[in-house]
Amino acid sequence: EVAVEDINDHAPVFPEEQVTVNIPEPGNPGSRFPLEGARDLDIGSNSIQAYSISPKNEYFSVSFGSHSDYEKYVELVLEKPLDREEQAEMGFNLIAMDGGSPPRSGTMEIHIVVLDVNDNSPVFTQRAYVGKVFENAPEGFVVLRVVATDLDAGPNGDISYQFSQTMSQSDSAFVIDPVNGEIKLKKPLDFEAAEKYELSVRATDGGGLSALCKVLVEVVDVNDNAPELVVSTFSSPIPENALPGTVVALFNVKDRDSGTNGKISCALEDQLSFSLRPTYKNYYELVTVSTLDREETARYILIVTAADAGSPPLTATQTFTVDISDVNDNAPVFNQTSYTMYVRENNVPTVLVGAVSAADADVGPNAKVTYSLVPAHPTDKPPCSCISVNSENGDVFVLRPLDYEQVRQIEVLVHASDAGSPALSANVTVRLVIVDENDNAPLVLYPSQDSSPPSSELVPMSAEAGYLVTKVVAVDADSGQNSWLSYHLLRASDPGLFVVGAQNGEVRLRRPVTERDPVKQKLVVLVRDNGQPPLSATASLSALLLSEFSDVHLPQNSLATEGEDDFLTMYLIISLVFVSVLFLASMAAFVALKVCKRNDLKGGHVLYGAGNMQSGLVDAAAAGTLPHPYCYEISLTTGSGNSEFKFLKPILPSLPPQHCTMGKGTDDEQDFPCGLVTM
């Protein structure tokens, strides 16, 4: 025998996914409603062990059990009375859970419908209704409407209205609509016969429940004749500068009724600028009480109401349409306190740059505005001739091209005047801002590009990377980003030796100088602005790589010759011999001049701090780099930088243009060429 043991491989299954249960209200607590239970193919502890409701509610619980081994039941138990008017429907899930591990479950949705019963009587919205009706109201006139409500649904909530049988007097004068509760006149009423009617109205629902309310109908006496209003005089339009108290209209009122119904009173509706002024008996004047402003209100609709003292009073109305004529009391007003307009430099002539606009609150000719340019003060010169304004529409034109570098902005005064008499006007300042364009190329200030050839910068052979050779200085006449300058190395004898600072123009050594580098280096630096399109300029400069700064006595123009860098040593030797010969010749010339022209010597004395000259003289003026009327002293030592030159101002600047004198007295005066160099 083989026994197959059960495992929990089946979940409970309800025969239906949704069940609707209809329960009449209110229901008795403890009432049970049987349901079809779930089935589980498993046995033993794996079969259905429990039922539950989700979500839990206060009205129902679930009960389950078995009458025998084969007869099991599941029931809903009502725990609390139901009220359809409070909740007509509800829903929840019935969950069957087996005892397996893990447990399995099945779900069935239960929909509860609460059936209505007639447990609510009709209720009127008011305990008593009061209505008034004129005695001349026509037949079928609705006096009032009574309203009752019933919380029940269906036929139990349908309400019908009827008069109570005890109120027999209503049969002759009133009728009620059984569906909507409207009480209407069945025939005309007579105030003299009855001043009021008391009615009783019953509201009955479909289940037979009813309610009563009281209805009081008051009959109102009728005033049969309305007042009459007769106009004698009326003036319109009136000027806006009319004085308070100005009479606009004269009229009288009358009523054919007598007694209280014949007493008449007049009123002017909602007016602060006008009022009624009684004159004689029933005559009235319509007058102004305050100053008028046409720009605020151009037309007044005045309604005069005449009412008698009847009950209810009868009224008559008369409408006066008063137009206000304009006077020129408003000056033009610009829509801005000031205007700022922009134009690019080099503009085309007669270009439109903007417009001014002024509005005048007046009308007609008083509101016609013309524009013109005026001086800021009566004594000022005429406004700028390069700006014009259209007299009709206020368009502002620039008549000729402008240059940002000459003028940055222009201010003019625009005058707006109306056509009134006298004319009123207003002024506004118009600021014309000239917008810069990139129309100026950078200008190199240093090194100067006027000399040919360019001056040379001295660089020691011992200089390390980062050594400052020189600095290119440039300016741009434009402004803003058009004047932002950047520096670039365009060409160089040895591009790998130098680097140029993009922002500051500093020319520095990229690497240390070596013996293999040519002595003469030539560089071209590109200076470019940031305009669109960019403009640029170039700066040419040269640099000499020197082992000792004693070599700087060479004239700059002799170093400008290209192709002789390989013979620099020989050139220096030749130059030294030349200087020595020149020194001897100069000494001989000085002695000759002292002997031959001693009496003809003129001019001032230049005193030097050094007692004697230690080296030869160099005619520096011949190099074209020093001014002739001045003498200079240059003191250099080996390894000195190019920034260690010392320039001495002359003691007597009125020397002859080609010579300087040197000596301790008139007997020792010697005439030297200008530009002494001491090494």
TrEMBL record:
It is found in: Cell membrane. SMART domains: CA. It is a single-pass type I membrane protein. The keyword Methyltransferase does not apply. Gene3D superfamilies: Cadherins. Coiled coil: none annotated. GO terms for cellular component: plasma membrane. GO terms for molecular function: calcium ion binding. It holds the Pfam family Cadherin. The chain crosses the membrane at residues 568-593. SUPFAM superfamilies: Cadherin-like. GO terms for biological process: homophilic cell adhesion via plasma membrane adhesion molecules. The keyword DNA-binding does not apply. Residues 15-124, 125-229, 230-334, 335-444, 451-557 form the Cadherin domain. Keywords: Calcium, Cell adhesion, Cell membrane, Glycoprotein, Membrane, Repeat, Signal, Transmembrane, Transmembrane helix. InterPro entries: Cadherin-like_dom (IPR002126), Cadherin-like_sf (IPR015919), Cadherin_C (IPR032455), Cadherin_CS (IPR020894), Protocadherin/Cadherin-CA (IPR050174). PANTHER family: CADHERIN-87A, PROTOCADHERIN BETA-1. This is PCDBD protein. It comes from Columbina picui (Picui ground-dove).
